[in-house]
């Protein structure tokens, strides 16, 4: 197994394609790069091919063509060496309702031939603690809320140290409180350097928790990269608030700011190219006698980015 080094990608696919037996092209030429240490959001409406991709990454189904590497190893060929380093929560955890949360984890741990039985109880206790289920550990799993079941599934994925966590729609069906809990848990898991790859059809969820994202639609990758750049690349706007919008527009135009719109109380335009110092731009306005009340780049949302890319709204109903 390749050793982990900074800058390495944990998941890498090249022209990954899956056509199902019925002829349905579910994933179409996917080139995905998931950097080590990222919280990577795999975003797309229902039916866009996220689950199919995850199943190929986990070696559960074979691609029709193309290649996938996970932790530097080819999948599905290296499934048996790769999967012990990957914690996965796909399509909800399989739990025994009549067993307690703790006993469910003991069962999971016992099914792992590499897990030392002598340290089992301690491992289970640590995993329960990490997901905040210690107090409820003795309760039967069938009495758990959906959010608690998801957390128990995460605990199962965390019984062993992992380099990668793959979570398929981890907040699906949860109420806002449950979603918050899972989000903060994901942040916490990522803080020790574990790469987290999570799929979601919720744009704001990805914005809140992910450092990087890829956007899928109809089996194809629309874009990928750091979340801040994806959003900024779309529709970030330079916003200057001033009682002298005409003069401000003239100065900004001279300075190469494109797509200017003059409003009653200011000017907006395309943010200047990376490398341009915003302070210089502001100083130029002031030097030209423009009275600047506000100056900054307004962040675009991922939703803006999606709309800009597809020309359509992000239809979560698929
Ligand atoms: N086993 C299968 N056989 C045939 N077609 C399939 C199969 N599984 C999925 N599909 C189709 O492939 C496309 C992509 O589905 P997939 O489940 O990967 O999307 P998704 O983005 O994960 O959506 P969801 O969030 O609804 O699971 C859909 O059109 C789906 O109907």
TrEMBL record:
Transmembrane ranges?
none
One Pfam annotation, family name?
A: ABC_tran
Q: Name one GO molecular function term.
A: ATP hydrolysis activity
Q: Which residues form the ABC transporter domain?
A: 11-243
Q: Which PROSITE patterns match?
A: ABC_TRANSPORTER_1, ABC_TRANSPORTER_2
Domain of life where this protein originates = Bacteria
Q: Which InterPro entries match?
A: AAA+_ATPase (IPR003593), ABC_transporter-like_ATP-bd (IPR003439), ABC_transporter-like_CS (IPR017871), P-loop_NTPase (IPR027417)
Keywords recorded for this protein, A-Z: ATP-binding, Nucleotide-binding, Transport
Matches recorded under PANTHER family: ABC TRANSPORTER, ATP-BINDING PROTEIN
Protein family according to the UniProt entry:
Belongs to the ABC transporter superfamily.
The protein's name in its UniProt record: ABC transporter ATP-binding protein
């Amino acid at each position: 197994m390749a050793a982990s080094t900074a800058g390495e990608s944990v998941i890498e696919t090249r022209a990954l394609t899956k056509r199902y037996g019925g002829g349905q092209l579910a994933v179409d030429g996917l080139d995905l790069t998931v950097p080590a240490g990222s919280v990577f959001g795999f975003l797309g409406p229902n039916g866009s091919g996220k689950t199919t991709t995850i199943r190929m990454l986990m070696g559960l189904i074979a691609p029709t063509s193309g290649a996938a590497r996970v932790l530097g190893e080819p999948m599905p060929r290296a499934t048996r060496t790769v999967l012990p380093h990957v914690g996965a929560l796909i399509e909800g955890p399989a739990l025994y309702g009549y067993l307690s949360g703790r006993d469910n984890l003991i069962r999971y741990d016992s099914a792992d031939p590499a897990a030392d039985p002598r340290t089992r109880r301690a491992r289970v206790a640590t995993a329960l603690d990490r997901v905040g289920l210690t107090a409820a550990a003795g309760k039967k799993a069938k009495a758990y809320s959906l959010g608690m079941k998801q957390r128990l599934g995460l605990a199962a994925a965390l019984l062993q140290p992992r380099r990668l966590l793959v979570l398929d729609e981890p907040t699906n069906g949860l109420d806002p409180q449950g979603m918050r809990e899972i989000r903060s848990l994901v942040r916490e898991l990522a803080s020790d350097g574990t790469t987290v790859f999570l799929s979601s059809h919720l744009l704001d969820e990805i914005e809140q928790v992910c450092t990087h994202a890829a956007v899928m639609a109809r089996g194809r990758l629309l874009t990928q990269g750091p979340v801040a750049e994806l959003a900024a690349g779309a529709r970030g706007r330079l916003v200057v608030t001033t009682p002298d919008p005409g003069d401000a527009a003239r100065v900004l135009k001279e300075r190469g700011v494109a797509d200017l719109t003059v409003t009653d109380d200011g000017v907006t335009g395309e943010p200047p190219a990376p490398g341009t110092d915003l302070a210089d731009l502001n100083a130029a306005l002031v030097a030209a006698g423009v009275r600047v009340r506000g100056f900054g780049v307004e962040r675009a949302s991922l939703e803006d980015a999606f709309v800009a890319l597809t020309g359509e709204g992000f239809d979560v109903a698929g």
